[in-house]
Amino acid sequence: MTVELLYFDGCPAEPAAFALLERVLEEENVSEQVQRIAVPGPAATTELRFIGSPSIRIDGVDLEGPDAEDELGFGWRCRQYSESEPGESKAVPSAELIRRRLKERE
After folding, report:
1. Residue-number span of the structural domain to which 23 is assigned
2. pLDDT per residue over 48-66, tens digit each?
């Protein structure tokens, strides 16, 4: 299993997304290390399939599903998730969304 966190430098949501991802992986006993990928600039968004910062992919599939790339498109922007923790920024996905995607990939 591969777990990727794509972001751009200075993204205010990246530290929280990384911490949440690490916590959920530990709670779910997933030993894979998170591959942190800093997207260098707008020109790399298509090549890296970058939906926005921060984006999380598990085995190459975005947390919001295989259609997320087509639905949201690639771009140099802050990411907003449809599922986030109650009262938290929508720029960070919910722990439950991460758990569901991990279980689908087992």
Report:
1. 3-104
2. 999 999 999 999 999 999 9
